[in-house]
Specification:
Blueprint (H helix, E strand, L loop, with lengths): L1 H14 L4 H4 L4 E5 L3 E5 L1 E8 L2 E6 L4 E13 L3 E13 L2
Antiparallel strand pairs: 1-2, 2-6, 3-4, 4-5, 5-6
Protein name: Sporulation protein YqfC
InterPro entries: Spore_YabP/YqfC (IPR022476), Spore_YqfC (IPR022477)
Organism: bioreactor metagenome
Length: 92
């Protein structure tokens, strides 16, 4: 049943040309250079240290690898991280 509701939301978003990140609460990742990342629609931080961050989302956990990480901003659904990034991937 939940899958049908999600699919219906996706179809409505496409038909009305609405942003999927807002309608479906999926993560929106904005990368500025290799030193700042903003993730919208996150569900919390799973792991944080100076070289690795894991951020939970509705879709999957996002893994960020690099060095000298620092949280610049964290809110209910948005987080901004600075540092030098090497890779960003979804956990399998």
């Amino acid at each position: 049943m939940q899958g049908k509701i999600e699919r219906s939301r996706e179809i409505i978003a496409e038909k009305l040309d609405l942003p999927k990140d807002i309608v479906l609460s999926v993560p929106k990742i904005t990368i500025i250079g290799n030193d700042e990342i903003t993730i919208e629609n996150h569900k919390g931080i799973v792991l944080f240290d100076r070289n690795s961050i894991k951020v939970n989302t509705k879709v999957k956990v996002i893994n960020i690898e690099g060095e000298n990480f620092e949280i610049l901003y964290i809110g209910d659904s948005t987080i901004t991280i600075s540092g030098k990034f090497r890779s960003i991937s979804y956990e399998v």
